[in-house]
Amino acid sequence: MALKEKALKRLAEKLNAAGIPYAVGGSWMLCQRGLADVWHDLDVFVSLADAERADRVLSRLGMRHQEESPAGFHAAYHFDGADIELLADLPLGDQATYRYAPEAVDGQAEVFGVPVPLLCLEDMFVIYASAGREERLARIRTAFANEGLGHPERLTSCAEGTLPEAVQAAVRALLGEA
């Protein structure tokens, strides 16, 4: 994992230096919070307004592969042994979009002395619920059961549009409204 973490260090140094607000989510973030043991790639979330600048920064670090996305922005990169996905305005079903905002950051991790902002668990819950990632949802639910919700408002404010009914039901259950 050390090689992949060096990629994350380089990524964070460059995005931090460029002043681009971002957060890392996905399995790496879950590992940082003790909710997963293994991570394979890095999911980096930015706003759509910052996506092109972030893309230029990451493209200078390594190979870039444009991903087809019906909406928003999604690009993939590979450098220093790591696969990175840059995501902005992620579709969550037919009528909703996940919109990264700086208030979605919940703490940070240090990677070789470089701060890396972490996406809040509530945002990842909505994203994973929309993608049907049940194993990861179970881990996040366990964390919420043990520690409580850190940012309950994010469950209803991180998406624009109408979330799929299954996601709405999962959010209501977490909020005790089911």
CATH class value = Alpha Beta
Number of helices: 7
Structural domain count:
1
- Summarize the biggest pleated sheet: 5 strands, mixed
* Relative strand content: 25-35%
Query: What is the rounded Rg?
Result: 16 Å
Structural class: alpha+beta
What is this structure's SSE topology?
Elements: H1 2-18, E1 23-25, H2 26-32, E2 41-45, H3 48-61, E3 63-66, E4 73-79, E5 82-88, E6 90-91, E7 96-98, E8 105-111, E9 114-119, H4 121-131, H5 134-147, H6 152-157, E10 159-161, H7 165-174
Parallel strand pairs: 2-5
Antiparallel strand pairs: 1-2, 3-4, 4-5, 6-7, 7-10, 8-9
Helix pairs in contact: 1-3, 4-5
What does this structure look like?
The chain is built from seven helices and ten strands. It has 178 residues and is α+β, with helices and mostly antiparallel strands. It has one domain: Beta Polymerase, domain 2 (2-Layer Sandwich), CATH 3.30.460. The strands form three sheets. Strands 1-2-5-4-3 form a five-stranded mixed beta sheet. The N and C termini lie far apart (41 Å). The relative contact order is 0.16.
Task: Give a short overview.
The chain has 178 residues and is an alpha+beta fold.
List keywords for this structure.
five-stranded mixed sheet; alpha+beta; globular; 10 strands; three-stranded antiparallel sheet; 178 residues; Beta Polymerase, domain 2; 7 helices
